Amino acid sequence: MATDFRDGKTFPRRGRTPIGDALWLARVADKARAAAAGTIHDYIYPCPMDKGVMERWGITPHDFDAAIRAHATDESLHAWLLARTTPEKIAAANAWLLDEKQENLDRQDAEEGATV
């Protein structure tokens, strides 16, 4: 199920919204699905933060694109991620987001009308 961002009022899920224990997974999944459907509007996938998280998970954008095609649900996508990475790598990606990229997360939330 792709998300359609073309109306400028619909946004990817917040980067802090976890799927299981993985922050950013919900947001990058929304963006990847929208990119595949041609409904991404002015979002960028994979953006530098997408790539930074994926790098810490130990996967590539190509790997993630294949996973998006194969896994239609959040649960299935999360299970795929857990089969390809470790809890330590997920924790490292989460820490990178919350520590080094907090300003980016706050800015995204503010731009998209989410409560920080």
From the spread of the alpha carbons, the general shape counts as globular
Structural class: mainly alpha
- Tally of helical segments: 6
Q: What's the pLDDT, averaged over the residues?
A: 95
In total, how many domains does the architecture comprise? 1
Number of E-type strands: 0
Q: Roughly how many Å apart are the termini?
A: 27 Å
Main β sheet profile? none
**Uncertain stretches:** none
What order do the SSEs take from the amino end to the carboxyl end, as H and E?
HHHHHH
Based on CA atoms alone, the radius of gyration comes out at 13 Å
Task: Classify the beta-strand content into a percent band.
Answer: under 5%
Percent helix range: 55-70%
Structure description:
The chain is an all-alpha fold and 116 residues long. The chain has one domain. Helix content is 59%, strand content 0%. The protein is built from 6 helices and no strands. The radius of gyration is 13 Å and the shape is globular. The mean pLDDT is 95.
List the keywords.
mainly alpha, 59% helix
Task: List the topology elements.
Blueprint: H1 25-37, H2 48-57, H3 61-70, H4 74-84, H5 87-100, H6 102-111
